[in-house]
Specification:
Length: 384
Amino acid sequence: MTQQSHKRVRLASLSAAQQASTSAQPAPEALTVTDLQVFPLKEPVSGRRYFVLKVLTGSGLTGFGEGNGLTPEDWEKARRVVLGQPASSYEVMRNRLSPFPAIEAAVNTALLDVMGKFTQAPIYQVLGGPTRNAARALTSLSGESDEALRESLSRTRDSGFRAFAVPLPPVKAFNHGQDFVKAVGKRLERLRAAGGDDLDFVLDGAGRLSPGDASSLAGAFEGLHLLWFDECCRLSNLATLRKIAAETVTPLGFGREIQDSGDFQNLLREQVVDVLRPSLSRNGLSQIRRMAALAEAYYVAVAPYHDGGPVGTAAALHLAASLPNFFIQQIPVPEAEPDRTMRREITQRPVETVREGFAALPAGAGLGIAVNEEALEKYRERGA
């Protein structure tokens, strides 16, 4: 027998022994998933939609997660994958559910919530944290006009935020001239004048601009020291993005529509991204940690995108506490009081409280929140 053949035999025997050892140790009943329940939700005024997922285990331990865009087909496939599996297999479940990103993100959070409760530790400790004691917070201003944005700025600043994402004026053509650049500049200058010098701003392009307009705006606002220019244009041409990044010192943020680590790696390799923006509703906590590890090797910061509900906010704060290269966490703040009331009722205690620009980490095991299932039923979107 050759040396190579001898190695193959040894490796095969070791693999067989490991498999036998694994199969001989059934998962504890406390961790076995016995049922999944889903609560489709819709905020009464804004119409923002998301769902809360509940995972039940054999011992009565429960976990909660949040996602968006769930279809009945994905739901049935997810049940077949997850039922009967141990909650400790959250990485295995992530791989098996990767074709269904909406449910994968929610299941990943819910299983980590179970593991945190099982070990009596916050999720960020299960994930190896904390790397910080609080998370810097960002919120999006709402309104079409400059006056409406100033009112939104005043309200959200009074609630503790010090960093704000500013939407563009209406984009009416594929290519704009200097009038558009001047309009955006006036909007940013008026907001800074109204809010004061201690505030930071992100310009939110939402992927709606042409590369030419994106380049013009990025260059024009270098002196405003934006935190970054978010999704300045679509990601269809990396060569174009590389040209924009090379011509401006304004940081660029991308990624809230991406759910493939390979696409993030392309952005990093081409050096076109300064702030990575993986979406919480498209990627679970485990997946975003993998993306953040890629970004860390390129000295790129991570600012997860979040536009969902309060369960997602709690998960985002645990994620923030576990990432060495975390920058800032986006937290939605609805304009209407009925929407804010709904969010407070769901978690029974405030989880989206921000003071002096920072959100405290949730305390307690798992997500550190007590989800109110009566509120989930109260706000359930009927017929969904």
